[in-house]
Amino acid sequence: MLSMLYMRLHHTVLHHCPIRLTMPLRLFPSWRGPLLATFLLFLFFYAYGFLRDLLLPYLAHGRDGFHRLALALPNESLPNVALVALALVYLPGLLAAWLQLWRGTKYQRFPRWLDGWLLRRKQLGLLGFLCAALHAVYSLCLPLRTATRHRLINAAYSQVKAGVEEPWDESGVWRSDLYLSCGVLALGILSLLAITSLPTVGNVLTWREFTFVQANSRNTQTHT
């Protein structure tokens, strides 16, 4: 009798809460929007770079640069996606603060779209960090390309033919070193933001420590 009552009660609970029971079976429900936004951003910057740097020069001057599709063009698109994703992380907080000031209270619920955006800031930040890390790996692979070796050989041959022994560009050297240094610093700060956003690390920090790391890293990252 008790087993039949339990089965009846269990069937009633299952019948009235199907959504709650299927929630653990969903695959990354909070990552779908950020993944779609990141993919669309990458697709936009990739298509823009393809039209501007490859297709238009080919149609106008006949220059064939389609070998850049596999490595160079994704490397140019990834940092743009990382920057926009980082902006999308901090923009909803500013919108929420402005909305609270405009309403004059913080006890009123946000709109549904803004609430969902606020809840997915961590996913956007981690995807932005992934794009920045991929950009660093792609940049390290650029000197290994066959096109780079041919370009170096052609440059060396042109220098020998012109009789130039040591072409030294002081401003170019400084500009390159500063560019690489700022990139490494930005990637390090973004790594710190990503690590402190993880629950296993964030739970160890106090609220003051977490706020200090996030605020100062955010300001440094923005200026870098």
Automatic annotation (TrEMBL):
Domain of life: Eukaryota
Alphabetical list of Pfam families matching this protein: Ferric_reduct
Residue ranges constituting the Ferric oxidoreductase domain according to the UniProt record: 81-213
Protein's cellular compartments: Membrane
Coiled coil: none
Molecular functions (GO terms): cupric reductase (NADH) activity; ferric-chelate reductase (NADPH) activity
InterPro entries from the UniProt entry: Fe3_Rdtase_TM_dom (IPR013130), STEAP_metalloreductase (IPR051267)
Gene Ontology terms: biological process: copper ion import
Predominant cellular place of this UniProt entry's protein: membrane
PANTHER family: DUDULIN-RELATED, METALLOREDUCTASE STEAP3
Family: Belongs to the STEAP family.
Name recorded for this polypeptide: Ferric oxidoreductase domain-containing protein
Organism expressing this protein natively: Electrophorus electricus
Gene symbol of the encoding locus: STEAP3
